Amino acid sequence: MRFSLLLLIIGAAFALPAVAGTYPLAVGAYSGYDVPALQQDVGAGVMWGVGVRGNIWRFVHGQVIVRGTSQGDADEELEFGNGQTETITYKGGTLTGFGLNVLLAKKDPCSVWPYALFGFSSNSFNFGDSFKKDQSLTGWSVGGGLGINLFQKKVYLDAQTYALVSPFHDNKASRKNWQTLIGLQYFIPIHTK
What we know:
The protein is mainly beta. The chain has one helix at 2-15; strands at residues 22-37, 45-57, 60-70, 74-81, 84-90, 94-104, 112-126, 135-151, 155-168, 173-191. A hairpin with a 7-residue loop joins strand 6 and strand 7.
């Protein structure tokens, strides 16, 4: 149900600009780094992302993004008293997500293009240890980014960083990750009139 609602919102977001006449549509590929925050059962790891971005209305842009992370192993040191300790290693696993970001920025591409980012996503946490139960959680993101024109306001170096929070246990707990992506975007002018 949540996934169907997300698809409906995405479809509406990209259909609205069709009445505007012309708007830029971009496709992008990213790589980056994911750092779990306030949790010790997984470690930091590399991530990738693929996104499509389009202007919805004035300064509001929509971005559909698919991303994945290979989370690193994490060590925890247990103390048993009398100076005895033992280290336990938790296997990292993966974190994948599909979401919609709302970007607040100037309507048309410019040489330096900063933006604020707010998003919602469906996230799948698959852990490497068999005693941990995999989780599918809805999350939200907040952060920002910066696009830098590399060629004729069509090819951009794009960097975005944001906090991803995925609540569970009836919103009494959450998984928190800080994610940073850097990549290239190619803008295609779309003419609808």
